[in-house]
């Protein structure tokens, strides 16, 4: 593969990035080719040493999306970062998607319990309207207790959700660093 083919493939694979970011990356790889040619290597040798433009773009896009979700953790940014990390290899399908689904399940169930406990006094009101003679103060007190417990659970889930999002972003960064070529030991 020649320098022009390599850079063209890399540029087309980096379309999700802005023009300025793509230009900066392309210039970095042009420098790799210039340095390699000065050292007496052929363009094909340099391209082989750099690796596949598609794999390079997957790694760069994964890093880009993880930085973006780290800066602003929106749902869209989170999903783009997850899909970019999964795109690095089939093994990541299990390693990234499995924990993400488990995490979402835990967060969803925690919020569902908290909200349902908070709304439990409404069930007593509905029961009072549907069956006026079956009202019991015990049920009212239990529903008020559940409502208070639900408020505490919901407040706790707010912190748990923030903690898990930050932790999962760190996990994605670790995974991408591992796929890119291993972790650096200090």
From TrEMBL:
Lineage start: Bacteria, Bacillati, Bacillota, Bacilli, Bacillales
Organism: Niallia nealsonii
UniProt entry keywords in alphabetical sequence: Membrane, Transmembrane, Transmembrane helix
Name of the protein in its database record: DUF1700 domain-containing protein
Superkingdom of origin: Bacteria
Transmembrane regions: 81-104, 110-130, 137-160
């Amino acid at each position: 593969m020649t320098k022009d083919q390599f850079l063209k493939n890399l540029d087309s694979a980096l379309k999700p990035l802005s023009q300025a970011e793509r230009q900066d990356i392309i210039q970095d790889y042009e420098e790799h080719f210039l340095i390699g040619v000065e050292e007496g290597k052929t363009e094909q040798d340099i391209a082989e040493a750099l690796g596949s433009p598609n794999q390079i773009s997957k790694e760069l896009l994964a890093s880009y999306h993880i930085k973006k979700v780290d800066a602003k953790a929106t749902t869209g940014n989170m999903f783009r970062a997850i899909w970019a990390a999964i795109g690095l290899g089939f093994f990541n399908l299990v390693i990234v998607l499995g924990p993400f689904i488990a995490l979402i399940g835990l967060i969803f169930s925690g919020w569902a319990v908290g909200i349902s406990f908070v709304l439990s006094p409404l069930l007593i009101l509905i029961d009072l309207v549907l069956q006026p003679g079956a009202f019991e103060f015990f049920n009212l007190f239990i529903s008020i207790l559940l409502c208070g417990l639900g408020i505490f659970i919901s407040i706790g889930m707010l912190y748990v959700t923030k903690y898990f999002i930050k932790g999962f972003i760190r996990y994605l960064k670790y995974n991408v660093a591992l796929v890119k070529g291993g972790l650096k030991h200090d």
